[in-house]
Amino acid sequence: MRQVGKTTLIRSLGKSYLSMDDETLRQKWESGDWSTLESSPAPIVIDEAQKLPGVFERVKLLVDQDRQPGKYLLTGSVRFLSRKQIRESLTGRTSLLELLPLTLREAHSEKLGNFFETLHKNGLPGFLKTPAPNKAVTPAQIDQYLIQGGMPGICFKRDAQVVRQMRDSHLETLLLRDLQLLIRTKVPYEKLRGLLQSIAQNQGQLISLSALGRQTQLSTPTVTQLLRAFEDLFILKSHGKTWYFTDCGMTSFLGASRVDHKLFQMERWVYSELRAQLQYLHRSSFELSSFSTRGGARVPFVVQIEGHPPVGIVVDATQGASEKSLKSLNSLKRTRRKPTVLVALHAGEVAYLSSTGVLCLPFHRIA
User: Fold this and answer.
1) What average pLDDT does range 239-245 have in this prediction?
2) Alpha carbon distance 356, 81 (integer Å)
3) What angle do CA 261, 267, 269 make, to 5 degrees?
4) Were 5 and a residue from 152, 199, 207, 346 both cysteine, which residue would form a disulfide, CB within 3.0 to 4.6 Å?
């Protein structure tokens, strides 16, 4: 995503830095003069590569001539696979990595948590005996993180007016410029922003595309197209039949901080923490989904990591696991052929094992 720190990180990893924001260099390559690319020492960073799709064809040719792993590091703020002229150049030659906003621990210069490794290694009773990290994440820190988010260029600013201006500018760049790389839409900026605001207020909940269309006066096909484009710009991530924002701070900026609903706020932080841990620590071997029934059972997060039993996770705004949460988890368990680990994250401070074998934890313990 834009402003997530790609350039800062990637410049520290490469010996040569070439940016497609450099119009002179871009025009040179467009004319067929690739001498700068071919003579630069590796690793070679090509920043904002999506601005010149032809660079992928050239890199493909050079890689076929010299299969040196890691020679080219390409970055972009548009999902490369969303563009056909790029997608066809990547097959079998690349590893795709997505850089996420800082987690709460990372924003405090601490190591990313690894909830699932601890859980699978120690089992349910053993997890209860495992001490919480010395620098435990607190609910107050989570509340602050939900407002500030984890975008490095924005979240450390202290002046609220400066932050608002940066958020506005960031959103305008995404919707007025980057979106046009993917779809030639004529939808006005106000409606695009309104669509994101509607999702921000309802993320984690079942969202009807037709209802979103009525709220924003857009057709259902247009809403569908825009949501796909928002995903390709890393603004949103689909999760079952709903969406979550990549950055919690953007959600709050669009109005979700005014939603006075503890469960809503807890779930959106849990999602961002789970996604970061899974994507960074279990990148090629996990599946994150949800579970629900017509009878009202709802397990918002079901995690399957290769080689381990699935983990069902509910979030509960009460001081312990409620009867409703326990019933939802047991409903999930009955539908699974394999043993399933059941976890209830609650707003209290006591960790315990329920009589039905559910691990009940303060929700901040997942970090």
Assistant:
1) 92
2) 44
3) 105
4) 152
* Angstrom distance (rounded) from CA 200 to CA 70: 38
Amino acid letter at 54? G
Which residue's entry shows tokens 């949460």?
A: 325
Q: What is the pLDDT of residues 325-344, one digit of tens each?
A: 999 999 999 998 788 999 99
Query: What pTM, to 2 d.p., does this model score?
Result: 0.91
Report the alpha-carbon distance of residue 270 to residue 313 in Å, rounded: 10
**Cβ-contact 106, 112 below 8 angstroms:** yes
**DSSP track, 302-329:** EEEETTS--EEEEEESSSS--HHHHHHH
> Which two structure tokens, joined as six digits, stand for 283?
């990148």
Q: What is the C-alpha to C-alpha distance for residues 136 and 92, in angstroms, rounded to an integer?
A: 42
Beta strand pairing call for 352-353 and 311-316: unpaired
- CA atoms of 140 and 135, how far apart (whole Å): 13
Single-letter code of the amino acid located at 337 = R
Q: For residue 198, report the phi and psi dihedrals to the nearest 5 degrees.
A: -65, -40
Domains and CATH numbers, the chain: 6-87 (no CATH), 111-137+260-366 (3.40.1350), 152-246 (1.10.10.10)
Whether the CB-CB separation of 316 and 286 falls below 8 Å is answered with no
Mode of pairing for the β-strands spanning 236-239 and 242-245: antiparallel
Size (the chain), residues = 367
Report pLDDT digits (tens) over 79-135: 876 666 666 666 677 788 899 999 999 999 999 999 999 999 998 989 998 887 766
In the chain, the amino acid numbered 127 is: F
**Exposed/middle/buried for residue 71 (C-beta within 10 Å: 0-12, 13-18, 19+):** middle
- Asked if residue 312 lies in contact with residue 299, where contact means CB atoms within 8 angstroms, the answer is yes
**Rounded Cα–Cα distance for residues 185 and 310 (Å):** 41
DSSP three-state, residue 61: helix
Tell me: the pLDDT tens digits for 168-190? 999 999 999 999 888 989 999 99
Q: Largest alpha-carbon pair distance within the chain?
A: 71
Q: What is the residue-wise DSSP string for 123-181?
A: HHHHHHHSPPPSS---HHHHHHHHHH-S-HHHHT---HHHHHHHHHHHHHIIIIIIHHH
